[in-house]
Write a structure and sequence with these properties.
Low-confidence stretches of chain B: 17-23
CATH topology of the largest domain in chain B: D-Maltodextrin-Binding Protein, domain 2
CATH class of one domain in chain A: Mainly Alpha
Number of helices of chain A: 20
CATH class of the largest domain in chain B: Alpha Beta
CATH topology of one domain in chain A: MetI-like fold
Number of strands of chain B: 12
Strand content of chain A: under 5%
Distance between the termini of chain A: 37 Å
Oligomer: heterodimer
Distance between the termini of chain B: 58 Å
Largest sheet of chain A: none
CATH superfamily of one domain in chain A: MetI-like
CATH architecture of the largest domain in chain B: 3-Layer(aba) Sandwich
Chain lengths: 521, 335
């Protein structure tokens, strides 16, 4: 038996417990006296069919519009290692992910709204607005996740390509595309999941209930309607939808053949100056920066001193940091254990099972935190003081939501590390701590840093379950932003949002540098 | 750089350990919405004032909104830690009453400033308001004078509204249109929908977009302009007075049957109707207090529109028909 199966199995059990048990709890609630079991006939309603269709349609379009340009931009970044401000831009690209959706909506409106820099008028509200916002969120993320795939191409392959006098198309066809095929499907799936579960953006920029996603339907059934069974059925439907798409994308995936090399990975040998690539990078940077810059300008015009002097702010910063870092740590440890198991399965030729392990780690993302949170609440509240459990629950749910990001950024690197060194380690009887220290750490610290930074930033920008449980003194920065917005303090909220962004940027930078080492991404 | 990881771990551990510790005094737990407990809401002042007189600890738990409070109580049933619930509105009281978890408050509402008599012995009102379309005087010179005019003038102003599936004002507008149009509500929505710029998840998004000039008017409260006048010395904003009247929202509090602190809970309800509590409401919750003389309101409130007559459906009717009405709205708006 594979010794890695045990910790990985434990993590899988934990995942199942965190997702399936709360779902079961909610269904069980639906059968208790006093709760209407809910009308499951809703399947037949035109409403659900329309919601289903729209969710899929907008998610597929958003994914294509985000990932296809991201491939070009990531390629440009990879082939232009000397581009000025490259490091700054790449770090900028991590930011949209953490902007709370309501703030992002305001940023997008500042740019494309009727008083904006590029006014689109009423056409902003509809599919156009949804796509603009989703591309703003996901294009930079996809760039960050795709870029390492280029860096995984060994240097000697580039040399070889040069010796063979390959043209750009041939290099793409024989060098880049095979490398890309390993990671691209996963990135597409991740972006698809993010867009599928998008909620406030879709509702606000979608122009009306024509643009309703499944997530809204789930939210609706857990709130005004309060039909837990229906919410669970819809959540499972969303899960199935994702599994379907996952199946399709994974068909596209080809794991690279095992190769044994200790060659250092690197990008193109001789960076060739290509105006088109520079143009691409500049366009993407402008697109991502515009909403952020408009937020920055709004915030600088806002009541900076007033916001900073508020004591609640500092408490929220501490809470936000605590939750973000804990969730990142938990998520990375869980993801690492899962990936190690899946990598050794893949090495043993059990590719199908390896994929299944990875998939189970990423797919849980689409079960809405509201459903998980409510389910956990149902289970815990009769037995324990839930207020004492707010931190563990929030951290666990955020770690869960971060898993797909860990798997995406760490997965390919870990698999390669295994393919290259597993046999060597076995023949040297290198295992446990020393293997971690001397074989895995040096090569994995960079993707590890990225994974940790992503999850931390994501958890820090998440409103999620904190609002659901609601306790005194557990405000996070995101919650503070919503409170300010709810109290007419829109200018204050913009300042707080800027502080959140700066905090995330700092944490991101510290984690990426601290764990990933000095070399630029 | 393993050192870095290790120091992260130590820091986290220290943070973990430092959380905890509390005092031993009777505690009154109140579930409310988080804009009540936030630094800008009435919460901090209310807590200070009540704790000064009760010799207890007031634990205000901020949930997302009235709907989450009700759901939370339903989930917890008889095991709830809450002694009181403060912040559900009259659209939810029927459902809340039906849970059987609330107990008669036994408090009389003496100096009511509500426009209608209050006879509910389970729930006590603490403030109320009216939904209205707010606009910027500099950008919209002649706002519609009635809901009918807003709906039927195809060249009328563009508006921002909230979704009745997710937001209380959204539900308020749905009921308002139903009150004015009755069976013709779907046709009214079909007509109005052409000028709805967007339907947002909650009040904050819509109001934020309005301040960015994305539409001429936004669904909010008649009291919203008071915020701009008092807190920002900004006279530009006004609510449009509609001749049919404005749909009303009354926010109430109720005491739970399972409470171990019933005397303290009753004390809090008395305090809630006292001048001390009531005078905090206008400039923190930006609503009309339910038991405070008009003359004690900030002078800016006198400049607000007169929303009479107050429109309000019977709570039972709302509980019974809400779902069908929302479905009808969805049907029209999704076309």
């Amino acid at each position: 038996m594979n010794p890695r199966a045990i910790p990985a199995g434990l993590i899988l059990c934990l995942l199942a417990m965190l997702v399936l048990v709360p779902l079961a709890g909610l269904v069980n609630l639906g059968t208790l006296p006093g709760y209407e079991s809910g009308d499951l006939q809703f399947w037949h309603s035109a409403y659900i069919r329309r919601v289903l269709f729209f969710s899929l349609w907008q998610a597929i379009l958003s994914t294509l519009f985000s990932v296809v340009p991201a491939i070009l931009v990531a390629r440009a970044f990879a082939l232009q290692p000397a581009f000025p401000l490259r490091g700054v831009l790449l770090r900028l690209f991590a930011l949209p992910l953490v902007v709370p959706s309501v703030v992002a909506v305001m940023g997008v409106v500042s740019v494309y709204g009727s008083d904006g820099w590029l006014p689109l008028g009423r056409t902003l509200y509809g599919l156009a607005g949804i796509l603009l916002a989703h591309v703003f969120f996901n294009l930079p993320l996809a760039v960050r996740l795709l870029l390492p795939l280029w860096q995984s191409i060994p240097r000697r392959h580039w040399h070889l390509a040069e010796q063979l006098d390959m043209n750009a198309w041939q290099r793409w066809r024989f060098l880049e595309w095979p490398a890309l095929r390993e990671g691209l499907p996963g990135v597409m799936l991740l972006v698809f999941m993010l867009c599928l579960t998008s909620f406030a953006v879709v509702l606000t920029l979608g122009g009306g209930p024509k643009s309703t996603t499944l997530e809204v339907a789930i939210y609706q059934s857990l709130r005004f309607d309060f039909e837990p069974t229906r919410a669970v059925v819809l959540a499972l439907l969303q899960l199935c939808l994702c599994l379907l798409v996952a199946g399709l994308t994974l068909k596209l995936q080809r794991l690279p053949e095992v190769e044994i090399t200790i060659d250092e990975a690197s990008t193109a040998v001789k960076p060739v100056y290509r105006p088109l690539q520079l143009l691409l990078i500049s366009l993407a940077a402008i697109y991502v920066a515009m909403p952020l810059v408009s937020m920055l300008l709004d915030a600088l015009a806002g009541p900076l001193a007033q916001v900073i002097s508020n004591s609640a702010l500092w408490r929220s910063i501490a809470n936000t940091l605590f939750i973000g870092l804990s969730a990142a740590l938990a998520s990375v440890v869980a993801g690492w254990l899962l990936l190690r198991y899946s990598a050794s399965l893949a090495l043993a030729g059990l590719v199908g099972r390896a994929r299944l392990v990875e998939l189970s780690g990423s797919i849980v993302y689409v079960v809405p935190p509201l459903v998980i949170g409510t389910g956990l609440f149902v289970l815990l509240s009769p037995h324990v003081d839930v207020f004492g459990w707010v931190y563990p629950i929030v951290i666990a749910v955020n770690a869960l939501m971060g898993l797909p990001f860990v798997i995406r950024s760490l997965g390919p690197a870990l698999r390669q590390n295994h393919a290259r060194y597993d046999r060597l380690c076995q023949s040297l009887a290198l295992s446990g701590w020393s293997r971690l220290r001397y074989v895995e750490w040096p090569l994995l610290r960079r993707p590890l840093g990225l994974a940790m930074a992503l999850v931390a930033a994501l958890a820090m920008g998440d409103l999620g379950v904190i609002a659901l449980f609601g306790t005194p003194n557990t405000a996070t920065l995101t919650l503070l932003i919503y409170q300010q917005l709810g109290a007419y303090l829109i200018a204050d909220a913009t300042v707080t949002a800027l502080l959140l962004l700066l905090l995330c940027l700092t944490v991101f930078w510290l984690l990426e540098r601290g764990i990933g080492g000095r070399a630029d991404a | 750089m393993l050192l870095f990881l290790r120091s992260c771990l130590v820091a986290l551990l220290a943070l973990w350990l430092s959380s905890g510790a509390s005092a031993a005094m009777p505690t009154l737990t109140v579930y409310t919405y988080d804009s009540f407990t936030s630094d800008w809401g009435p919460g901090p002042q209310v807590k200070k004032a009540f704790e000064a007189q009760c010799g207890c600890q007031l634990n205000l738990v901020g949930l997302e909104d009235g709907v989450s409070m009700l759901n939370r109580i339903k989930l917890e049933g008889g095991n709830t830690r809450a002694d009181l619930v403060l912040g559900i509105d009259t659209n939810l009281t029927a459902e809340a009453r039906a849970t059987g978890l609330f107990e008669a408050h036994g408090v009389t509402l003496k100096s009511s400033s509500l426009p209608e008599p209050w006879s509910d012995n389970t729930f006590l009102p603490y403030d109320y308001g009216y939904f209205a379309f707010v606009y910027n005087r500099e950008r919209l010179a002649s706002p519609p004078a009635s809901l009918r005019q807003l709906v039927e003038d195809d060249n009328g102003p563009t508006i921002l509204v909230q979704d009745p599936r997710t937001s209380t004002p959204g539900l308020g507008l749905l009921l308002w249109v139903k009150k004015v149009y009755g069976d013709q509500a779907d046709a009214a929505w079909a007509r109005l929908s052409k000028r709805i710029v967007t339907v947002s998840k909650g009040w904050s998004e819509a109001y934020g977009l309005f301040l960015k000039n994305e539409a001429d008017m936004v669904l909010s409260y008649t009291t919203s302009p008071a915020y701009h006048m008092i807190a920002e010395q900004d006279q530009r904003f006004a609510a449009a007075r509609f001749s049919e009247g404005h749909y009303q929202q009354i926010e109430v509090a109720g005491m739970l049957r399972s409470s171990q602190q019933k005397q303290l809970a009753r004390d809090f309800l008395e305090f809630m109707l006292s001048e001390r509590f009531q005078s905090i409401i206008p400039t923190t919750n930006w609503m009309y207090p339910a038991a405070l003389a008009r003359s004690s309101l900030p002078p800016e409130f006198a400049q607000l529109i007169d929303p009479s007559p107050a429109l309000l459906f019977d709570e039972e009717l709302v509980a019974e028909r809400r779902k069908a009405w929302v479905d009808e709205w969805l049907e029209v708006m999704s076309r």
